[in-house]
Amino acid sequence: MTVPTPPQSVTVRVPAKVNVQLGVGGRRADGFHDLANVFFAVALGDEVTATPADTLRITVSGPDADQVPLDGSNLAARAARLLARRHGRRPDVHLHIAKEIPVAGGMAGGSADGAAALVACDALWGTATPFGTLLELAAELGSDVPFALLGGVALGRGRGEILEPLPAGGTFHWVFAVADGGLSTPAVFRECDRLRDEAGTGSDTAAVPDPQPDPALLDALAAGDPVALAAALGNDLQPAALSLRPALADTLRAGADGGALGTLVSGSGPTCAFLTKDAESAATVAAALTASGTCRSVRVTHGPVPGATVTGRR
Ligand SMILES: C[C@](O)(CO)[C@H](O)COP(=O)(O)OP(=O)(O)OC[C@H]1O[C@@H](n2ccc(N)nc2=O)[C@H](O)[C@@H]1O
Ligand SMILES: Nc1ncnc2c1ncn2[C@@H]1O[C@H](COP(=O)(O)OP(=O)(O)OP(=O)(O)O)[C@@H](O)[C@H]1O
């Protein structure tokens, strides 16, 4: 019997997400918010390559590389440590992140790298962790990490970590406008609470009704209908992101004027997302956004695409 040789390196591709619906409930006793979170994975993504090393080491390349921590706080490093501990081994791995997802942009870039590191280390170390266990480890790392493993389109309940895959009937075309500088996710949730308190509605679970997925949005996804999906897009964090970064209103307007079917802030922002009719229309909207001067850069992409997937093994 031949014993398979362990790989010398494993590369994993992982998608960014946009939340086509982000219903935010009241603040729970643990500080988190219950969500009706419809995640959508887009082709814009990062690549994480794992190779054996004497000690855990992170390197990063790409346009935002200088904003990514290289120490133990990096979500990819935390993922490697968590998986190693589960299997009683040392996290002796070099993880290189080829970063395309905007940092602190509301597209779950760090979460994506955490999910990719779980999959890459599992393949490199031959630990054959069941997918259900990877999902549990992912939820320990952060609310958005399980979805980066799953990909496609899914409803996230709880703080976003309890996932139910949803059907999607076709490819949707998106444009993303990347802002200068990021927004902190906890700060945006705090601002959402503050705005609710200021409006007199209250911000805890007793005051805010449980958010529910919008049936019209789920039908539009299943039917692959971009016009119906555009009409149903919604993000309860958008007022908070706009309150912290009022200039985002100009970006959203520029995309709408440029012909987008629907516009919204992606997750906690500040990246803005534009749903378009087709690939040609996406190029037109991208050109209008670039010409408007209301954002740092513009990315054209599509989805849904699969979650963290091994794309290379040497
Ligand atoms: C805004 C979203 O990106 C939408 O998908 C997510 O809800 C955020 O997910 P994430 O970045 O993985 O967030 P975590 O790392 O789990 O939590 C960071 C912080 O965001 C806030 N947070 C996050 C998720 C949630 N359901 N309620 C919250 O209030 C909490 O202050 C928490 O301490
Ligand atoms: N691998 C990573 N890539 C990017 N940022 C990371 C990573 N690991 C840790 N971080 C830290 O996380 C912070 C948030 O970055 P991230 O790109 O995940 O934000 P985000 O996309 O807004 O998150 P989300 O959409 O999940 O709320 C960064 O400012 C950075 O300090």
Highest CATH level, the class of the largest domain? Alpha Beta
Total of DSSP H or I helical runs spanning 4+ residues: 10
Average per-residue pLDDT, rounded, comes to: 97
Strand content: 25-35%
Number of domains: 2
Terminus-to-terminus distance: 22 Å
Instruction: Report the principal-axis shape.
Output: globular
Helix content: 25-40%
Query: What is the SS-derived class?
Result: alpha+beta
Helix and strand sequence: EEEHEHHHEEEHHHEHHEEHEE
Bound molecules: 4-diphosphocytidyl-2-C-methyl-D-erythritol, adenosine-5'-triphosphate
CATH topology description of the largest domain: Ribosomal Protein S5, domain 2
CATH architecture of the largest domain: 2-Layer Sandwich
Pfam families: GHMP_kinases_C (PF08544), GHMP_kinases_N (PF00288)
Active site: 17, 144
Domain GHMP kinase N-terminal: 74-152
GO molecular function, one term: 4-(cytidine 5'-diphospho)-2-C-methyl-D-erythritol kinase activity
Describe the protein:
This is 4-diphosphocytidyl-2-C-methyl-D-erythritol kinase. It is an enzyme of class 2 (transferase). InterPro entries: GHMP_kinase_C_dom, GHMP_kinase_C_sf, GHMP_kinase_N_dom, IspE, Ribosomal_Su5_D2-typ_SF, Ribsml_uS5_D2-typ_fold_subgr. It holds the Pfam family GHMP_kinases_N. ATP binds at residues 102-112. The protein is α+β, with helices and mostly antiparallel strands. The chain has helices spanning 75-86, 109-125, 131-141, 145-150, 185-198, 215-223, 226-232, 238-244, 248-257, 279-292, and strands at residues 10-27, 33-52, 57-61, 93-98, 153-157, 162-165, 172-178, 234-235, 262-265, 272-276, 297-303, 309-313. A hairpin with a 6-residue loop joins strand 9 and strand 10. Strands 1, 2, 3, 4, 5, 6, 8 and 12 form an 8-stranded mixed beta sheet that branches. Strands 9-10-7-11 form a 4-stranded antiparallel beta sheet, with helices on both faces. It has 10 helices and 12 strands. Helices cover 34% and strands 28% of the residues. The chain has 2 domains: 10-167 and 305-313, Ribosomal Protein S5, domain 2; 172-302, Alpha-Beta Plaits, CATH 3.30.70.890. The model has no long low-confidence stretch (mean pLDDT 97). 4-diphosphocytidyl-2-C-methyl-D-erythritol (CDM) binds at residues 19, 22, 31-33, 35, 37, 108, 111, 142-144, 159-160, 185-186, 189, 267-268. Residues 19, 22, 31-33, 35, 37, 108, 111, 142-144, 159-160, 185-186, 189, 267-268 line the site of 4-diphosphocytidyl-2-C-methyl-D-erythritol (CDM).
